[in-house]
Amino acid sequence: MPARILPPAGPPRRLALAQLVNSVGDGAYYVCSTLYFARIAGLPPALIGLGLTLAWAAAAPAGILLGHLADRRGPRTVSALLAAATGLAVAGFLLVRSFPAFVATACLYAICQSGLAASRQALLAGLVPPAARTGVLAHLQSTLNAGLAAGAALGGIALHLGTPAAYRAALALDAAGFLLCALLLLTLPPVAPTPAGPAPRGGARLAVLRDRPYALVTLLQAVMLLRMPLISIAIPLWIAERTAAPGSLTALLMLLNTLAVTLFQVRIARHATGLGPAVRLLRRSGPVMLAACAVFAAAAAPATAPVAAALLCAAAVLLVTGEMMQSAGAWQIAFGLAPEGRQGQYQGFFGSATAVARMAGPVLLTALTVNWGPPGWLLLGGLFLLAGTAMGPVVRRASRIAVQDAPAQPAPHPHRPPHGNPQPLTADRAGKGHP
To answer: What is the DSSP string of 253-266?
Structure first.
C-alpha cells in the first residue's frame, strides 16, 4: 500500500488495518447484495428498497444512543461488540427467505453499522490528538476505498460465476471481515469511559438533542451527503436512460471515484487544520459540486457516445473533487464542535446524516435527475452550493454554543491525551486556521 495511504504507526495504523479487512468484505457485499436478495433470497426489488429504507430510518436515532453508550462504557469495547454484531447480521442475510426476516435483519445491520461508525469515531477521538484527527480520518478513508476496490473485484468474480454458492461466499466474506475487525479493535489501547455527571441544563442526558446549531450543521451535512446515492444510483440510471454513453461507463466512473479518494483524500485533508479552514473547504466544495451537476446535465445533449462519455468523465472528476473537500471539512467540524466526553453521542448524531441521505436519497435523486432531467441536475447543484455556503454562519454559531455548554474535563487517561474545549470560530481563527 503506498505510503500516502498508511497512517502513522501505532493505534492509527491498527485502526486502518481494522478498516481494511472490514472494507474488503464490504466491497464484495455492495456488489453482490442486491442481486443476492433478488435472485437467491427471492425478494421483489420494490420490497428490497422498502426494507432498506425502513432499516436506515431505524438506524438514525439508534446511532445516537449507541454513541452515547460508547461514551459511558468505553468506545473500544462498544466498537468491537458492534463490529461483531454487524458481522452476525450479515451472516443472518444468508438465512433470509421472507420479507419480515429481511426487514428484521436489515434493521439489525443498519443499527449496528450506525452505532459502529459513532463508537469508532469516539475511539479515534480518544486515541488521537485533536490536531491530527482529520488527517488520520483521511488515511482511513483512503484505506477504506482501497479495500472496497479489492472487495468489489472479488464480488465481480461472484457475479461472473452467478451461482448461489458464489453469492453466499461474498456475504460470508463480509461477515468474516466484521468479526476480524472486532478482534483487531480489541488490540487497541483502552479509552477511559466518561463518567455520568449531572444532567445538563434542560435535564436531557443526551446533550446533543438540545444543541440546535449542531443539529442544523447535521442537516446541512445530510444535504451534502446526497452525493452518496448520486454515484451509486442516480448516475447509473442517468447514463442508461438519458445519455448516449454505454451503460458500462458506470463501472469506470465508480473506479475513478474510488481510486481518486484512495490517492488524494489525504492530500486534500491536510488543508482542514481547524474549524476555519474546514468551513472554507466546505464552502469551496459547493461550487465544484454545482459544476459537476451542470456537466452531468450537459451529457444528455450530445448525440454521440464519445462526447457524452467525455462529459460524464469530466463531471465525475469534479464530483469526486467536491466529495473529498466536503469529507475533509465535515470530519474536522464534527470533531471540533463535539464536547470532549460526549464524542460518541455527537458523532452518532452527526452520522445520522448518512442514514438520512441513504434513506431519502434514492427517491429524491431519481425524481430530480432521471425524471426531471437537466433542470433537476441544476437544482441539485444549487442545493449543494447553498448547503456549503450556509456552513460558515452555522458552524460559527455552533462553536460559540459549544464553548458555553462544554462539560468539565475529566482527568487525562494514560492512552487519551488531554483535549481542550472547542474554541469559537472567530475571524482570527478562521483566518489562521488554528485547531
So the answer is: HHHHHHHHHHHHHH
118 in Cβ contact with 344 (< 8 Å): yes
Question: pLDDT > 90: what percent of the chain?
Answer: 49
Q: How far is it, in rounded angstroms, from Cα 149 to Cα 335?
A: 28
Mean pLDDT of 391-407: 74
CA 135 to chain centre: 16
Task: Report all structural domains of the chain as residue ranges with CATH numbers, in order of start.
Answer: 1-190 (1.20.1250.20), 206-435 (1.20.1250)
- Side chain identity, residue 421: N
- What's the CA gap between 244 and 246, in Å, rounded? 7
Between CA 324 and CA 138 the distance in angstroms is 9
pTM: 0.77
- Asked if residues 42 and 53 have their Cβ atoms less than 8 Å apart, the reply is no
Residue 4 to residue 423: CA distance in whole angstroms = 30
User: Which segment, 61-65, 106-110, 416-420, is predicted with the most confidence on average?
Assistant: 106-110
Name 192's Cβ contacts closer than 8 Å, sequence gap at least 6. 74, 126, 410, 413, 415, 416
Angle of the 305-336 helix axis to the 212-224 helix axis, nearest 10: 160
Cα(427)–Cα(403) distance, integer angstroms:
16
pLDDT in tens, 168-192: 999 999 999 999 999 999 999 998 8
> 413: which strand partners?
416
Q: Is the confidence at residue 283, as pLDDT, over 50?
A: yes
